[in-house]
Write a structure and sequence with these properties.
Layout: H1 10-14, E1 31-34, H2 50-61, E2 68-71, H3 74-82, E3 88-92, H4 96-101, E4 102-104, E5 109-118, H5 122-125, E6 133-135, H6 146-152, E7 155-157, H7 162-170, E8 176-180, H8 181-192, E9 198-200, E10 207-216, H9 222-239, H10 241-250
Parallel strand pairs: 1-2, 1-3, 6-7, 6-8
Antiparallel strand pairs: 3-10, 4-10, 5-8, 5-9, 5-10
Protein name: Transporter substrate-binding domain-containing protein
Pfam family, one: SBP_bac_3
InterPro entries: Solute-binding_3/MltF_N
């Protein structure tokens, strides 16, 4: 795992940077795991990404030691969390299979989910999708797109990363990319700067995208962990600190 640089925000430092895990975690701290999903999570991002920041603060707000956070490939992170080797993992969307194996927290993030098309592709922008090519990174849930794949007989492409999908969209190798808006905006700015050649497709419906912390149902303390995390997360929201942290993180330029 590569080193994680400190936050550049003076406001965060003024609020007590020691609580963010700059020092070694408490011996009794929980061990959590996540993967690469910038800007939510990333080993090279400030403090491991905004999700990692919020998860640490939520446990602190609940009176718990700041957890340690390990970065692993998503498949391994999921498997080892399910087996109880890590106390929790984040951030995950809901889907039917996952809910059989995990308890979900209250939403860690609430964002919008969209389809992105090239600005010069009027059919894709206007929702005329019959037989179009849709790109979704390998390992991402298809729960948000399954209905549209069936309805329009979309041809699904599954490259390794979102960056692959965006490059394929730009080169007319695919027609659509489906993604959380926050994640897509970050990736587009990294690849194309402030003027990416894409637009959100107008399909006549708004879709929400919620992300959660998950705990394996196999853990005997699963309900307690979820309860503590939810209490801390609610405290962050009620105090306004959640919004402060999210706004400050969104204002940071994308790392390259």
């Amino acid at each position: 795992m590569s080193a994680i640089p400190k936050f550049a925000f003076a406001a965060l430092l003024a609020c007590g940077a020691a609580g963010y895990g700059f020092s070694e975690p408490d011996a009794d701290a929980l061990a959590l795991v996540t993967g690469e999903f910038p800007p939510y999570t990333g080993a090279a991002l400030p403090q491991g990404g905004i999700s990692a920041v919020l998860v640490r603060e939520a446990f602190l707000a609940a009176g718990q030691p700041a957890p340690s956070i390990v970065f692993l490939p998503w498949k391994r992170a999921y498997s080892e969390t399910e087996q109880g080797r890590f106390a929790a993992s984040f951030p995950y969307t809901r889907d039917e299979n996952r809910e059989k194996a995990f308890l979900y927290s209250e939403p860690l993030h609430q964002d919008r989910f969209s389809y992105f098309a090239r600005q010069d592709d009027e059919d894709a922008r206007k929702g005329r999708w019959q037989g179009k090519r849709l790109c979704l990174p390998l390992g991402w849930t298809t729960a948000y797109v399954d209905a549209d794949v069936r309805k329009y007989q979309l041809r699904l492409e599954r490259p390794p990363t979102l960056e692959n999908c965006l490059k394929m969209l730009n080169s007319d190798t695919v027609d659509l990319v489906s993604c959380n808006d926050f994640v897509a905006d970050y990736a587009m700015r990294r690849l194309f700067g402030p003027r990416a050649p894409f637009a959100i497709a107008d399909i006549g419906k708004a879709q929400s995208s919620e992300l959660y912390l998950i705990v394996s149902r196999r853990r005997p303390d699963a309900e307690r962990l979820i309860r503590q995390f939810n209490q801390g997360l609610a405290a962050l929201r009620d105090s306004g600190r959640y919004q402060l942290l999210l706004r400050q993180y969104r204002e940071q330029p994308p790392s390259r």
